[in-house]
Write a structure and sequence with these properties.
The protein has about 220 residues and is of the alpha+beta class. The chain is built from eight helices and five strands; from the N terminus they run ααααααββαβαββ. A five-stranded mixed sheet has the order 2-1-3-4-5, sandwiched between helices. Helix 2 packs across helix 3, helix 5 packs antiparallel against helix 6 and helix 7 crosses helix 8.
Length: about 220
Amino acid sequence: MAISDWPTAERPRERLLALGAGALSDAELLAVFLRTGVRGKSAVDVARELLARFGGLAGLLGAGRAAQGVKGLGAAKAAQLAAVLEVARRCLRDELRGGSALSSPAAVRDYLRLALGAREHEVFVALFVDAQHRVMRCEELFRGSLTQTSVYPREIVKAALGANAAAVIFAHNHPSGVAQPSQADELLTRQLREALALVDVKVLDHFIVAGNQCLSFAERGLL
């Protein structure tokens, strides 16, 4: 049944206008974006299938070219989704730059989930922070394979000095989907903390991102 045949109060767009976007499910929000379904399926049905195929909104938004050509989501819609993701990233980045990274940990997590959660290969990034703990910039410093990446403390020290950073927040992703630190992760974090301490730059945290999960070393007592 087409959404236009549903009772008005049950249609996603009307529900959004009446109750706000927060009242809608992921599938309903995506259906509002898609606008139309395909033969025999409503936009909500198509949205549910897309979310199941890509593992949720984060997976769909980060799918890139893999999403093109999927029934119900052509190249134009895939491009629009990519634009939506980039707008969200930039909004969160601007929010981080406008306030303290320590007083808005949720914004840090949200930004990192969007930036790293759907990446297929492991990457290592640094958020360089000033003396007021405002994020000045975020840089992808190293990129690796599906399971690991090589990180060089000397290069990170150079980058921190080049940014005139007072502190840094590290993050890397686990494409495996498991947000647990390995012994190598813990050893690397200690080495980076010790190397940066020599130039008076503090390591505030190290996050591991796996899909929608985001683990904090600081909260685990690993710093």
